[in-house]
Write a structure and sequence with these properties.
The structure holds two protein chains of two kinds.
Chain A (H helix, E strand, L loop, with lengths): L1 H37 L5 H14 L20 H31 L8 H50 L1 H6 L3 H31 L8
Chain B lengths: L1 E11 L4 E10 L4 E4 L6 H8 L7 E6 L12 E4 L11 H11 L5 H10 L10 H15 L4 E4 L7 H6 L5 H20 L3 E6 L9 E6 L2 E7 H7 L1 E4 L15 E3 L2 E4 L2 H7 L5 E2 L3 H9 L4
Parallel strand pairs in B: 3-7, 3-8, 5-6, 6-7
Antiparallel strand pairs in B: 1-2, 1-4, 8-9, 10-12, 10-13, 11-12
Helix pairs in contact in B: 3-4, 4-6
The chains are: A mainly alpha, B alpha/beta.
């Protein structure tokens, strides 16, 4: 068990190293979105939305062949490699949720011009969407591969974002503490569903023919 | 116990077929897997390593069917298993040390030094990534080293680096020579792919042509026993097709001169040199 934990930790460390560069860029972008929101260029919910969408896109590069194929030779097995990837993506989504929530509270809690309701509900909705996107994206990428999975992935992420952006004012009308709880509950459900999604993804990964284009 | 045991293994791809291949490699015996480009050497390795599902047949490593239980014993160096270019060997070493119980960090650094790969800097290009793969494989103290150097016309490599021109290939050759030296020095059992039979060094040789295993066995015995039987093409019908391996100029290539002579006493046979056999199956060396 100790060995398994250490192996997962090392795989998480590897994912972090591979994402380090992208994370710096994405981190910079998110900060920029918040600075613009603070300056009043656009309302805070836009910064929240962008800040939550960007980390969903970050793990994309992990699925490239050069970042994946060699994992097949590790004696730890492919199961741990897929699990570490799922944990990385989940940690990014939930980490950015906390990060955005913190910035929202620090920058706008005492701001009388902006109500916290809309950004808060946007944050919860975007996180809820992010967790479910991850649940679908993981098996999708393992089934189709990085290249073929990408267009579907973008469609999956951008469609709800566009819908949310178009209907944001209506969403504000529905704001209630019940909605907050429903979304929060939805996020937890999404995380739980992730374990099923991980199993499906692993099934695809084990079936995958790494050599399909080789001879 | 055998290191690897294959029973009637076949693998069908859209434009290529491997098999039926049966062979048994004793522990401690080095195997040279010989064949021209696109003869199926890499596909053979992918198949026996479980990276592609075979259509039929059985594969056992160290007597076990479950490869995952034994993969830690294998040091695998294949062109497609290059490591991520954004990581440095130091970072890779830190990761692999956890996964390989026999990991030798000093050996890893020594191999990198020999291959002239910086320890602290990110891997520069697919050439270094491949060589780094060799350093990783040797640092894990494998029971068996599986080494498949890239070929210039290897489709897999072309996909990764379109720029592979003569000049680049020369650099690759330099790196591959260094790798070859390290492989030769390694004390473990080895399975190595080669383009020319004359380059084979191992006790056992397996010769692949268009996905079929033409020759398999002890290299020295094969060379002592094989030969050419003198026969005109129009007289070929007199010999059963299974009794010869390949038609060559003014004759046919046979596996065992003595057995052949017993069966066909009227036909004369002659001994072939290693270069002649090599040229027959794998062409002239460039």
């Amino acid at each position: 068990m100790v060995n398994t934990n250490r192996r997962i930790q090392s795989l998480l460390y590897k994912e972090y190293l591979l994402l380090k560069q992208s994370l710096r860029v994405y981190g910079g972008l998110v900060l920029l979105y918040w600075i613009f929101a603070k300056l009043g260029i656009y309302p805070p919910w836009i910064a929240v939305l962008m800040g939550q969408i960007v980390p969903i896109l970050a793990p994309l590069s992990l699925f490239q062949r050069e970042n994946s194929d060699y994992l097949a030779v590790l004696p730890s097995g492919r199961e741990l490699a897929v699990f570490a990837r799922y944990l990385t993506a989940l940690a990014l989504t939930m980490g950015s949720f906390l990060f955005n929530l913190l910035i929202l509270l620090v920058l706008f809690a005492n701001n009388s011009n902006n109500s916290l309701e809309l950004p808060l509900i946007t944050l919860l909705f975007a996180t809820f969407m992010g967790v479910f996107t991850l649940d679908i994206a993981l098996p999708l990428f393992y089934a189709l591969g990085s290249r073929r999975g990408k267009p579907w992935f973008f469609l999956m992420v951008l469609t709800p974002v566009a819908l949310l952006a178009l209907r944001i004012q209506e969403l504000e009308q529905f704001y209630s503490i019940t909605l907050v709880f429903v979304l929060f509950f939805g996020i937890l459900m999404g995380i739980l569903a992730g374990f099923y999604s991980f199993r499906v993804a692993l099934g695809y990964h084990l079936e995958k023919d790494i050599a399909s284009e080789n001879r | 116990m055998y290191t690897v045991e294959l029973t009637e293994v076949t693998k069908k791809m859209s434009h290529f077929q491997l098999g039926e291949i049966s062979l048994r490699l004793q522990q401690g015996e080095d195997l040279d897997l010989v064949g021209k480009n696109n003869s199926g050497k890499t596909l053979f390795l992918w198949s026996i390593l479980g990276f592609t599902k075979v259509n039929s047949g059985e594969i056992r490593w160290f007597g076990r069917e479950n490869l995952q239980q034994t993969i830690g014993e294998l040091g695998i160096v294949l062109p497609k298993l290059c490591y991520p270019l954004s990581l440095s060997p130091k970072e890779l070493g830190r990761i692999f040390a956890v996964h390989y119980p026999k990991w030798q960090e000093k050996e890893f650094q020594h191999q990198l030094e020999q291959l002239k790969i910086p320890y602290h800097q990110p891997i520069a290009g697919t050439m270094q990534a491949f060589a780094c793969g060799l350093a990783v494989a040797l640092a894990q103290e494998p029971t068996v080293l599986i080494y498949d150097p890239p070929e210039k016309k290897d489709k897999a490599m072309e996909e990764d680096m379109n720029e592979i021109q003569e000049e680049n290939w020369e650099k690759w050759q330099e790196m591959l020579e260094k790798c070859e030296k390290q492989v030769e020095e390694a004390s473990c059992q080895k399975i190595i792919t080669r383009n020319h039979l004359a380059d084979a060094r191992g006790e056992v040789v397996a010769l692949l042509e268009e996905g079929k295993l033409l020759l398999y066995g002890n290299r020295k015995e094969l060379m002592e026993n094989c030969g050419k039987m003198m026969i005109e093409k129009k007289e070929l019908w007199k010999i059963a097709p299974n009794d010869y391996v390949k038609v060559m100029e003014n004759g046919v290539f046979i596996k065992n001169k003595t057995e052949f002579h017993d069966k066909y006493p009227k036909f004369s046979t002659e001994t072939l040199t290693l270069e002649e056999v090599s040229e027959l199956f794998t062409g002239k060396r460039g």
